[in-house]
Amino acid sequence: MYGIILAGGSGSRLWPLSRELYPKQLLKINTDKSLLEMTYLRLLNLTDEKNILSITNAKHFSDVKTQLSSISKDPLLLSEPAQKNTAPAISVSVKYLLDKGKDDVILVVPSDHLIKDEKAFKKSVENAKTLAEEGYIVTFGIKPAGAETGYGYIKSSKKNNDFSYKVEEFKEKPDKKTAEKYVKSGKYYWNSGIFMFKASVFMETLKEFAPEIYEITQEFNFTKNNQIEFTKFDKMPSISIDYAVMEKAKNIINVPVDCGWNDLGSWDAIYDINSKDKEGNVKIGAVQTENCKNSLLFSSNRLIAGVGLDDIILVETSDAILACKKDKTQDVKKVFDKLKEIKDETHLVHTTVYRPWGYYTVLNQGEGYLTKMICVSSHGQLSLQSHNFRSEHWVVLSGTARVTLDNKNYILKPGSSIDIPVKVKHSLGNPYKEELKIIEVQKGDKLVEEDIIRYKDIYGRVKA
Amino acid sequence: MYGIILAGGSGSRLWPLSRELYPKQLLKINTDKSLLEMTYLRLLNLTDEKNILSITNAKHFSDVKTQLSSISKDPLLLSEPAQKNTAPAISVSVKYLLDKGKDDVILVVPSDHLIKDEKAFKKSVENAKTLAEEGYIVTFGIKPAGAETGYGYIKSSKKNNDFSYKVEEFKEKPDKKTAEKYVKSGKYYWNSGIFMFKASVFMETLKEFAPEIYEITQEFNFTKNNQIEFTKFDKMPSISIDYAVMEKAKNIINVPVDCGWNDLGSWDAIYDINSKDKEGNVKIGAVQTENCKNSLLFSSNRLIAGVGLDDIILVETSDAILACKKDKTQDVKKVFDKLKEIKDETHLVHTTVYRPWGYYTVLNQGEGYLTKMICVSSHGQLSLQSHNFRSEHWVVLSGTARVTLDNKNYILKPGSSIDIPVKVKHSLGNPYKEELKIIEVQKGDKLVEEDIIRYKDIYGRVKA
User: Fold this and answer.
1) CA nearest to B329 within chain A
2) How many contacts does A have with B, using Cβ atoms within 8 A?
3) What is the mean pLDDT of chain A?
4) Handedness of CA B266, B268, B272, B277 (dihedral sign)
5) How far apart are alpha carbons B112 and B8 in whole angstroms?
6) Of A290, A300, A253, which Cα lies nearest the Cα of A15?
7) What percent of chain B has pLDDT over 70?
8) Computed from CA positions of residues B357, B352, A361, A345, in that sequence, does the dihedral angle turn out positive or negative?
């Protein structure tokens, strides 16, 4: 069995915890594993790591790779050079597996959903496998826990066998009234976005109902080239797999699964999955409350205090705070879009940014200065670089730094510091076992990440 | 005419903007002048600065002095060595003025109220003065703008003359129902806490109704000693002037004043005094809203976003965030008290702390480090000191620093830095005209303000 993990995502729904460059699947919400990592581990429970292919878009590639590499030595990972929704992503992934492997059954899963009951999920997948081998495209329907308007629904009431139902119709996200009707009828399931099919069956179905995507998909040859070429991929229409294939195909079957599934599509879902105090409050981090009920208070850094709140979501991050009425969490996306429109960077990035060599956190920025905590992993190495508009000042907190400054090398222990003047070539590395932590003080009138001239990349290769 | 400014205050009501060590009167709420500064300027409009005495408690003395010194070269300022409510504070202040001056009329004002119509206030004071000179104790009653439960009330319905009414009764803070009854009757005024009387009249009244306070007050002799001695002052009962004198005295008269008075006693008052957008929202600082109404969003530093909020107060400061239902702002004090109880420092201080030499702001604190922005005023000088548990690293952003390190002097220009190792004596000064700004990185396992050994004070005097 193969697995395909869809690891794209826009990062708008769980803002300010998620960002455009740090979407939901990368988040560790109240746990030590991200949703992506949990998804990968879930598939490892079903098949070997060489059979698990993840696909993400270029802007998340580095972060996705870093997380998967914490579990697998050499995770299979494709980068989409353009954002084209799920149909093109799944199609090229299936083509990749066909080119590299055999015509086997494939399980397709989103990377940003929560599944509480892994056993129940595994059981359903095993059941579904027999149907996929018979030539069905299996969709996993979730018994609705309420009249949600944020999900698509599948009408499916006639039994096929012990564990599966025939699919009558796919329904787009309904309004509240329609959703209530669906749930009351008992004939509808939530569309989880999880699918299973044989590779060749998918390709045939794609050819029949989405010939345009099929044709472009055939242009890729992953035996010759491991990359998804932009010029080919960019010709793909931007369309979801539901719309392109599932809603039209005749060989669809529904395997209902009761596995504590939640797509964590908005802040009220985060409220739902967490345990509550007796007033119905979820408190995470440094929180004080006075006479609050049914509210979520989520602190990442600073103290948050709630007084007299009812049905309120309050989320604190280093650089942005959200307060939201619980039944309006779908509108968080509107704030996100507005910030994007006015080019406020809080929609885009966190103050913590992960890099192949470790990570940095912007601690504070003011007139003429910016402070960062830089953490360089064991054997991590930053590129040789210089800056035209800022000086940098490094103070070693822990570990040992190897600094190259103007062609001289320095070894810095905790408590020592070094000044990097404007325009002087420098690099920072940690050739040791212990993690290196330094505080960087940037001084200058123009303090932007873009003020950087790279001379060698992190492998020491001279830039062309 | 004399003025007494009562500049104590607990800092709990407008938390997290106010703190125990930075109470309401010191705040500059959406203006460039603090409430204290505005109060001082208001009195300067009525009398000469040598006639204005401020009294505050010891822990706010330095901050109060700094602010008043921005207006007056040598402001008269008494420090209370213990917190004893308003009766002792007013009594010793009156004694001070009698000892130092003559038996004149005194206007007593709180330092943390807002008065929008200075002209109307001045007119009422001038009217009141004639009555005070006749031997009355004048209280300034405010025509109620609503059935507030946070104020004391004065029953006063019978005219005395054109601009004054007889006082029938002082009433403590009522419940909602009683407050509504008061307002409906038209016979009640809010007790503003502003008073006017002749010094000798006050002393006679004090002698009659609060003999204990009177006796202790007589022990002070400000012709010999400018300080309020702790051993004497600490014998005072902790009691308000209303309770000790006003509610009992017979010679009280009410001069109603319509001057846009607001005691800013809670966050909903801050909402009330600010201008609103068409949805009734007050937005201060970096704020985004989506479908919010009747809410206050107050950002000091970071972006705050509100979605679907109604009647919510949201306040962001460097180290604490408050979200509060608007009709529950009186309960903010409970959070403050809880934080105090659990020794969470966010009740006590801001991340910005003012000192005689300038100020510092804690930018960020993490495991093993703390970063500060230190701003040293022109000719500001910090004490000679050392630290047992931390090294410090200073990067000059602007201005010029004179650093003494291990008996050597260094002059540092912007972009240069210096390391202060653990246990080494050092001091920082700015003997120049331009303000000095540095970033300090502290490194150590124990990073507390108390880790400081002072060898000389800021005047260069060797410590005993």
Assistant:
1) A307
2) 197
3) 92
4) positive
5) 9
6) A300
7) 98
8) negative
In this structure, which amino acid lies at residue B152? G
User: Which residues of chain A have a CB within 8 Å of the CB of B365?
Assistant: none
Q: Work out the angle at residue A30's Cα, subtended by the Cα atoms of residues A26 and A31, and round it to the nearest 5 degrees.
A: 70
B251-262 residue pLDDT tens: 999 999 999 999
Rounded to whole angstroms, the Cα distance separating A194 from A114 reads 12
Residue A368: per-residue pLDDT: 87
Kindly provide the residue ranges of all beta strands, DSSP E only, lying in B201-300, ordered along the sequence. 252-254, 261-262, 282-284, 287-290, 296-299
Q: Confidence class of residue B458 from pLDDT cuts 50, 70 and 90?
A: low
Within 8 A of A339 by CB-CB distance, chain B residues are: 288, 303, 305
Tokens of A291: 């006479």
Nearest CA in chain B to A331: B307
Give the relative orientation of helices A35-44 and A61-69 as an angle to the nearest 10 degrees: 50
The sign of the torsion formed by the CA atoms of B341, B344, B346, B352 equals positive
Name the residue of chain A whose CA is nearest to B330's CA.
A307
* Contact between A319 and B306 using a beta-carbon 8 Å cutoff: no
pLDDT, mean of residues B9-20: 86
How many CB atoms are located within 10 Å of the residue A363 CB?
Answer: 20
B178-232: pLDDT as tens digits: 999 999 999 999 999 999 999 999 999 999 999 999 999 999 999 998 899 999 9
Residue A454 has what pLDDT?
85
CB of A348 closer than 8 Å to CB of A354: no
For residues B388 and B423, the answer to whether their CB atoms sit within 8 Å is yes
Angle formed by the axes of helices A199-209 and A86-100, to 10°? 140
Q: What are the phi and psi torsion angles at B223 (to 5°)? A: -75, -25
DSSP string, A170-189: EEPPP-HHHHHHHHHHT-EE
Q: With an 8 Å Cβ cutoff, are B314 and A321 in contact?
A: yes
Condensed to tens digits (0 to 9), the pLDDT of residues A187-226 reads 999 999 999 999 999 999 999 999 999 999 999 999 998 8
Asked if B335 and A371 come within 8 Å (Cβ–Cβ), the reply is no
Residues B65 and B356: their CA atoms lie apart, in Å, by: 9
How many distinct helices (H) and strands (E) make up chain A? Answer: 11, 30
* Residues B386-412 as b or e (16 or more Cβ within 10 Å = b): bbeebbbbbbbbbbbbbbbbeeeeeeb
Mean pLDDT over all residues of chain B?
92
Q: Cβ-count burial of A141 within 10 angstroms (0-12 exposed, 13-18 middle, 19+ buried)?
A: buried
Question: For A432-454, what is the mean pLDDT?
Answer: 89
CA separation for the pair B372, A364 (Å, rounded): 10
CB-CB: which of B303, B307, B421 is closest to A346? B303
- Residue B303: list chain A partners with CB under 8 A: 16, 319-321, 339, 344, 346
Residue B39 has what pLDDT? 97
pLDDT at B433 over 70: yes
**Residue A9, SS3 per DSSP:** coil
Nearest to A321 among B316, B339, B364 (CB): B316
The full length of chain B comes to 464
Which residue reads 């290196």 in tokens?
Answer: A436
- A371–B307 C-beta distance less than 8 A: no
Taking the C-alpha atoms of residue B198 and residue B179, their distance in angstroms, rounded to an integer, is 32
The ipTM, to two decimals, is 0.79
